[in-house]
User: Fold these one by one.
Assistant:
Number 1:
Amino acid sequence: MFKEFKEFVMRGNVIDMAVGIVIGVAFGGIVNSFVSDIILPPIGMLLGNVDFSGLFIILKEGKIAGPYESLDAAKAAGAVTVNYGIFINTLINFLIIAFAIFILIRNVNRLKKKEETTVVAPATKECSYCLSVIPVNAIRCPHCTSELK
């Protein structure tokens, strides 16, 4: 059983998937920081110093009556809230990650197309009569002297 497990884990696609997941998690952290620390502050400033993560709607007040200064204060009071600001942050994160992956895949596909288009035509072919290897432009086989089409 250990041998089968080792074979399963050592297959290329399992290791590639694991590496992809680890890199994806690290990339997600970078994008979260990029969005929350670089993208959202200027957007919030343009919209009148709005911090998206602090936007919420109170559905039911908690033990301590509102108004609440922040989402943390509302949660501490036990209020039931709809946290649409956090959703906006998450949505922006997703769109940035999706766009970055799109650009990455697009460039990888371009590189693959360049590799495919640079395939060199073969310089030799086989004689259909004696199966000898001859130059591709030959019209007569030098080995069996047959005329080639």
Number 2:
Amino acid sequence: MKRHLKRAAPYFAAFLALLLVEILIGRFASGWIRSYAGDVLVLPLLFCLIRIFTNCLPRTLPLWLFALGCFTELLQLLRFSEILGFAEGSLPAVILGTRADWADILCYALGTLLTMLVLRLKGDFHD
């Protein structure tokens, strides 16, 4: 258990830092920072959240998360939030999103590359 906590601690700290940045972006940022920076950081945020609980798939997890981001954009394109009846601005609508944008997919790709680069630099790029 101690070993798991020692391994998970940096991911927990990174998750909290990224979550704080995401909240600050959502609350105070505007322009390109609000439009794109949050989407770039969401992939590293999710990666850190998952790595808190498991040591599996460090190399392929960023790619799975990128696929999840693309799937989310597809759901937005299909107006899934509207189909489910989520009110605009409600928490489920905000989490799922309501507007598909190809630029978001590019941001997810950048976030994936950023995550993989940090893993490579950290020497944690293995399965």
